[in-house]
Design goal:
The structure is a single chain. By secondary structure, this protein is an alpha/beta fold. It folds into 2 domains: 186 residues, 3-Layer(aba) Sandwich (Rossmann fold), CATH 3.40.50.2000; 186 residues, Glycogen Phosphorylase B (Rossmann fold), CATH 3.40.50.2000. Helices cover 44% and strands 17% of the residues. The strands form 3 sheets. A 6-stranded parallel sheet has the order 10-9-8-11-12-13, with helices on both faces. A 4-stranded parallel sheet has the order 4-5-6-7. The longest helix has 21 residues.
Amino acid sequence: MARRLIAAGHTVTMVCGSYSGGTTELGTPFRRGVRRGIVDGIDVIELELAYSNRHGFFRRTMTFLKFAMRSIALALRESYDLLFATTTPLTAGLPGIAGSWIRRKPFVFEVRDLWPELPRAMGVIRNPIVLGAMSILEWVSYRSADRLIGLSPGIVEGIARRGVAKGRIRMIPNGCDLGVFDANPVPWRPAGIGSNELLAVYCGTHGIANGLDSVLEAASELQRRGRSGIRILLIGDGKLKPQLQARATAEGLENVLFHDPVDKMQLAGLMAATDVGLQVLSNVPAFYYGTSPNKFFDYLAAGLPVLVNYPGWLADLVNQHRCGFAVPPNDPIAFADALENADDERASLPPMGERSLNLARAQFSRDELGRQFVDWLTGNAWNEK
């Protein structure tokens, strides 16, 4: 999205922390906890604040707060015409509030998850004082923003429920990087997975929200049925990965493999050799219409049938466009049935994948969403707060 702003003639400064699964490509050493340079035309300010999903709640909270405080200092010091902030976490809105209130700069806030609704629904935050403080920050962030972006229908509705006029909200979901996945990547599979085996891949975080125990339960059911030709690959990292690996080993799940994270180009090659993409989340009703997972759009861009294991807007898309399988939550039998059906009806998979790719091109092309993004940030017809 930043590159698209630059292509439209704007200059962009991007502030970020450090992430163990990615790199800004800045090669200079940190000086006093910061380094700065140009990447793809973007002025990148990288703060030496390491983040990982494996970190505990307190450590992540402190990282978020440190990032917010240092970003506020930049928002008060840097030269800019508009400030854009994106969650998660909700504290990402603090620099926008500072820029709006103190410097009177236009502020656009992108909401990727509804906080505190999702943490409350998942039960990961129960302290009423913390939840109350988050609710206040949510309200102030929304009211301080001139415009807001929601990544899913439920997020847009959640913002509107806080009293924000719908004319100030735009849904721009995560998109499909067609230039990456549609560029004839070299297919590859990890060692131990045969070329004739059905390969179902989950790619993403291994955390509480992701509900990957449901995948292991389906794998157990498939192994009980003797379906040895179906393999499930979990690629990524997260706090629960060691626990999931231990469970798979304890239960003797020979049809499940784990793999370290890979970059987007490597992922494109893996997707080219994959039969089904797994869009899996814990069974939390707030997720049904309130999330916009990157991995789902990567599967579409790669032309894969997608298996979704919870109801909501993504399952609706899969059903409407006949580009995969939608199964009920917490139902390992139905999950296993879908993979078994995919294995038995291999000829049906390429047409499903083609419909996935058509959906990606028609509704979720990064180029088209980037145009909408630039228009929403820079358009002249701004509504009153």
